[in-house]
Design brief:
Layout lengths: L2 E2 L3 E2 L1 E5 L8 E5 L12 E3 L6 H13 L6 H13 L6 E3 L4 E3 L12 E2 L4 H4 L2 H4 L16 H13 L2 E7 L2 H13 L6 E6 L13 E5 L4 E2 L2 H12 L6 E6 L7 H17 L12 E6 L3 H7 L4 E2 L13 E2 L5 E2 L2 E5 L15 E3 L4 E3 L5 E2 L4 E2 L8 E3 L4 E3 L3 E4 L4 E4 L31
Parallel strand pairs: 9-10, 9-13, 10-11, 13-14
Antiparallel strand pairs: 1-2, 3-4, 4-5, 6-7, 6-8, 11-12, 14-18, 15-18, 16-17, 19-20, 21-22, 23-24, 25-26
Bound molecules: S-adenosyl-L-homocysteine and zinc ion (4 copies).
C-alpha cells in the first residue's frame, strides 16, 4: 500500500531546497504530517524493498481499529439494552464495552453508568485528540455551536454535511431525537473513527478531508452522495472546521470534490450554482482561501471554542478568537448577533464587529481582528492599531520588529521577511 492505515492514500509533496533548484517530490501521509505519529515517507522516484513493504503493512495492521463500523453499530444496539450499571466506557481504549469484554480491559480506567444522554453527546465522552500539527480537536463552545445552528436554520437549510464538526453534528442529532418538529438532518464526515461507535453508517462516514478519501469505500461515498441529493427540496449546506495545521490547498481540493458531488446530484437547469459552504478557519488564511474560492467572503463572527490554544485575552477580558466563517452565501444574509456587538454596515452590506470602523479611504470595514484598525497612507491600506510604518521595510509592522529579511516565505502567510514563529498575522498584539 502507498499510504498509511489511519489516513488512506498518501499525498505528493515537494521538498524545496535552495532557490532555483528543482524540488524533489515525495509521498507523505496526508493526515499525520508529524513523523512521530506516522512513519510513512517515500521519495517519488524511490524503489521500496519487499521487506520494507511487509513491515509497513504489518505496522498498518497494528493501527487498524479493533472493530469495523458495522460491528460498532451492532455493539451499540446491544449496549443500549444494558442496565445503566452495566454500561461502561473504557477511557484508555476510548471504547464502549460489553460485559464480556470487561475482563480484557481490567486495569484500565472505566467511566460507568453511561446514560442515553451521554451516548448522544460523544464529543464530551471522548477526550479531544491533541496531536499538535494535524489532528488537534477544538470543540465549539456551546454559544458558537448554537449560533451556527440557528443561522443555518434561519437561512433555510434542512440538511448539514458536517465535515470535521462532530459537535455541530451531535447538537443536530440530539435535537432531532428529542423534538419531532425539528427537521434538520446531519451527516458527519470525520477522520476520528471513535465516532463510529455512536452513529450508524447513515450518520457518520470515516473520511479524510486532506485527500477526499472515504474509508468505507463506494458504499460510504454513495451515502454521502445520497445525502447531498437535492430533489427532496430540503436545502443542504456543508459546514467544515478543519485542523488549522492543514494544508489549505489539499483541503480546498477535497471541498471542491464534495461540491461537485453536490452539483452532480442537481436537477437540470441551474448548473452554475455552488453548494453553500461555511468553512471555519483563522482570519489570517483569508487570502489563501480566497485564492481557491473567489466566491467566498470572510464574516466578522468570532467562533469560540472550549479549548483553544490560539486565544488571546482582549482588553475587555473577553477572549478573542482569530477564527472566522468563510462562506459563499451573500454576506448580508449572514446575520450576526447584535447582543454580542455586531452591527450592519450599510455600505459594505454585511455585519461587522463593533470595533470595526468603516474606512472612507479603503471604502470598507477593514478590521480583521475586531479591533479598530488605522489607515496608513504610505501602505495605502488599513493596518493593525499596534503597527507603525517602517521606512526600512517599506511597510507597517510592530514597533520592535527586526528589519532583516529572509528569503524563504512564511508558512502561515506566505510572505517573505519572517518565519512562521514570528509571523505578525499569528499575533493579535
Ligand atoms: N469545532 C469542531 C471540531 C473541529 S476540530 C466541533 O466542535 O465540532 C477538527 C475536526 O476535524 C476534528 O473532529 C477532527 O477529528 C477532524 N479531522 C482532523 N483531521 C481530519 C482529516 N484529515 N479528515 C477529516 N477530519 C479530520
Ligand atoms: Zn463598511
Ligand atoms: Zn483604510
Ligand atoms: Zn522594518
Ligand atoms: Zn507571516
Amino acid at each position: 500500500g502507498n499510504g498509511c492505515a489511519s489516513a488512506g492514500p498518501a499525498l505528493l509533496f515537494v521538498k524545496t531546497s535552495r532557490a532555483g533548484e528543482q524540488g524533489r517530490r515525495f509521498y507523505a501521509c496526508s493526515a499525520c504530517r508529524d513523523r512521530k505519529d506516522c512513519s510513512f515517507f517515500q521519495w517519488e522516484d524511490e524503489k521500496v524493498s519487499e521487506t520494507r513493504l511487509a513491515a509497513r503493512e504489518e505496522y498498518n495492521r497494528s493501527r487498524q481499529p479493533s472493530f469495523t463500523h458495522r460491528q460498532n453499530v451492532e455493539r451499540l444496539k446491544n449496549f443500549v439494552l444494558l442496565a445503566l450499571s452495566q454500561r461502561k466506557f473504557c477511557q484508555d481504549c476510548q471504547q464502549l464495552l460489553l460485559p464480556s469484554e470487561w475482563q480484557e480491559h481490567s486495569g484500565h480506567q472505566f467511566q460507568c453508568d453511561i446514560s442515553t444522554a451521554q451516548l448522544k453527546t460523544p464529543s464530551q465522552l471522548l477526550y479531544p485528540l491533541e496531536n499538535k500539527k494535524t489532528n488537534a480537536q477544538y470543540l465549539f463552545a456551546d454559544r458558537s455551536c448554537q449560533f451556527l445552528l440557528d443561522l443555518i436554520i434561519a437561512l433555510g437549510f434542512r440538511r448539514v454535511l458536517s465535515v470535521g464538526t462532530p459537535r455541530l453534528h451531535e447538537m443536530i442529532q440530539s435535537k432531532a431525537s428529542q423534538d419531532e418538529d425539528f427537521s434538520v438532518r446531519s451527516l458527519l464526515l470525520d477522520i476520528d473513527f471513535r465516532y463510529s461507535q455512536f452513529y450508524t453508517e447513515d450518520e457518520f462516514c470515516h473520511y479524510n478531508m486532506f485527500n477526499h478519501y472515504f474509508f468505507g469505500g463506494e458504499a460510504a461515498r454513495e451515502t454521502c452522495q445520497q445525502f447531498l441529493y437535492q430533489n427532496t427540496g430540503e436545502r443542504v449546506i456543508m459546514v467544515t472546521d478543519p485542523p488549522f495545521g492543514g494544508l489549505v490547498e489539499a483541503l480546498a481540493s477535497s471541498f471542491k470534490k464534495l461540491m461537485s458531488m453536490w452539483r452532480e446530484t442537481e436537477k437540470e437547469g441551474d448548473n452554475n450554482q455552488e453548494m453553500p459552504v461555511f468553512w471555519i478557519f483563522p482570519y489570517f488564511f483569508e487570502s489563501r482561501i480566497l485564492e481557491f474560492f473567489p466566491s467566498f467572503s470572510m464574516m466578522d463572527y468570532q467562533v469560540d471554542y472550549d479549548n483553544h490554544a490560539l486565544y488571546k485575552h482582549g482588553k475587555t477580558g473577553r477572549r478573542q478568537s482569530p477564527v472566522r466563517i468563510f462562506t459563499n452565501i451573500t454576506p448580508r444574509m449572514v446575520v450576526l448577533p447584535t447582543e454580542e456587538g455586531y452591527r450592519f454596515c450599510t455600505i459594505c452590506q454585511r455585519y461587522v464587529s463593533s470595533g470595526n470602523q468603516h474606512c472612507e479611504i479603503c471604502n470598507s470595514c477593514t478590521s480583521k481582528d475586531g479591533r479598530r484598525w488605522k489607515h496608513c497612507a504610505l501602505c495605502n491600506k488599513c493596518v493593525k492599531p499596534s503597527w507603525f510604518h517602517c521606512d526600512k521595510c517599506n511597510c507597517c509592522a510592530l514597533q520592535d520588529h527586526s528589519c532583516e529579511r529572509t528569503d524563504a516565505g512564511c508558512f502561515v502567510c506566505g510572505k517573505a521577511g519572517h518565519k512562521r514563529s514570528t509571523c505578525p498575522q499569528l499575533s493579535l498584539a
